[in-house]
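Note to self: the last two entries modelled the partners one at a time, which told us nothing about the interface. This time every component goes in together.
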Amino acid sequence: MTTPTRRSTAADVAAAAGVSRSTVSFVLNATPGQTISDAVRQRVRAEAARLGYRPHAHARALVSGASRTVLVPLPEWPVEYVLRQILDEAEATLDDAGYTLVTSGRHHSGNARPLWETLQPDIVLPIERLAAEEAAAIRELGIRVVEFDSDETEYVESVDAQVAHLVDRGHRVLAYASTTVPGMGRMSDARIARARRACADAGVRLQDAVVEESTARFVVREWRRAGVTGVASFNDDTAALILGAAIREGLRVPSELAVIGHDDSPIARLLVPSLSSIRFDTTGLGRHLAALALAAAAGGPPPTAQRPPTHARVVHREST
Amino acid sequence: MTTPTRRSTAADVAAAAGVSRSTVSFVLNATPGQTISDAVRQRVRAEAARLGYRPHAHARALVSGASRTVLVPLPEWPVEYVLRQILDEAEATLDDAGYTLVTSGRHHSGNARPLWETLQPDIVLPIERLAAEEAAAIRELGIRVVEFDSDETEYVESVDAQVAHLVDRGHRVLAYASTTVPGMGRMSDARIARARRACADAGVRLQDAVVEESTARFVVREWRRAGVTGVASFNDDTAALILGAAIREGLRVPSELAVIGHDDSPIARLLVPSLSSIRFDTTGLGRHLAALALAAAAGGPPPTAQRPPTHARVVHREST
DNA sequence: CTGAAAGCGCTTACAG
DNA sequence: CTGAAAGCGCTTACAG
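The predicted structure of the combined assembly is written out below.
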């Protein structure tokens, strides 16, 4: 760790090039409508390069009123594979448009100010809907908040795909395995509700249970007793728990118990038997997020009220 | 998405409270050495609250020269479980000290400026050592760069623990399973080298191979032929690949082939048989990172040149 | 064709 | 006890 050197400013460049600070700004920002000789432009650029000049972001943001930054507050629950993939794609797309995506962690113990105050992003795009007061507080900072038009209940079509897959493969008594990760309760409830409806529509029965490591074998035994032959899971980790319990119970998978996960995370391919799962169009979703942010940054309304393209589809492997 | 309202400034608060802007600043920042009547203080605070005044971060950073922000550029390779845990802890610790930790993604396609320019953090703390020119460029921005005193070769004692565990359990021909994730090559090489040394010291033989999904069974067959009975893996995903291949080959684990992973990621408990692995003191490492950043922010040298407490230790499960 | 000046929102010596 | 003023580093009308 060495001591930082004093950074060079536009004034330094101006002095070195023998021009005014405005000229430096005009040249370096290629401001249109200015008539500056090529010789001067060359000189300014050369001096800027020589001095390693980089405009000070805070000063620029202060005067321009925009930081070209998008803040994504992460949800309370641990961020899973799918969301990471989506955010990676959103980040790349925003980068192409000259915007930087920053995610904020789930700690806000309170000593540091909230990241939107520290960062002063142009846009805040929360994954989970913010509390109304919180959103209002952010807006009072002059920041635009992008709220999704849809709540969790619209993102559960993947459950239909799980149920349809199991029904197609001849299962008539199903179970839904949900999880207890704190903060995911609402999402879990929405998915169970959707599973119930899908099963009712298909005329099959549905059990459900919260599955944890310590109870997985017990749950599996109960389900077997109730005639369950196919299980849809909240995510791949929960499915792995079911799969493990089934194996330890000496059940054959999928002939005695079929299991389908959700998210198609890396673990799905690593399990034996490999896990059928639900894959999302994370690229499409990521670009959709980026488009929402960019539209908000441009000051307009969201691009389309259309639902993003989830394209949830079954990846069929050995477990079903 | 609603249009943002104009945010209120210190000038608004001053006008509303009938005082000067300096007084507002003194009151709100509790600047010591000022003698301001309680009545005035009350009034300023009340108006600030009523107007929802929040100091503009960029203006404040511009004048104070500090943003109370720590930037952690993430490595090129996909961030695994252990690093996330470490960063979560570092984030919480920094938050307690009033600093915000921001991580920068691995995209820098180049249209957006590097995050350190956009963010102007006080400290940059890269996980992987930065290229010298890059570090120099950051320092020219007046930002302190914290370089670890140690390179990867010092973080491989966990390999000793893997080898010792297998040797303790009676294995005399070992194998090291490495991975091909781009960017992790150096780390992988360092660990294999360490495994070789540990095996030489223990007087046991060592094979090694890069393991991928498509080649895992082949590799396992080869190893069996060479008499290998214990495998140490670069990470838990690679171990899962070996485990899966062993099961598909009809081998009994651990009696015919023992496997130990690395990182103790969630998958280790989900596999059947459950995977022995190496757990780190992520809490200690996270706090160590935070301490390094804080020491740098305070302007001093790093707190201690001591190595961080990795405390790598074996978590013994069914696979060994 | 180029520079002096104002101003973004704040903090902090310095006068009263 | 409190306010006027300078200045952080930039951008951008506005004069020459």
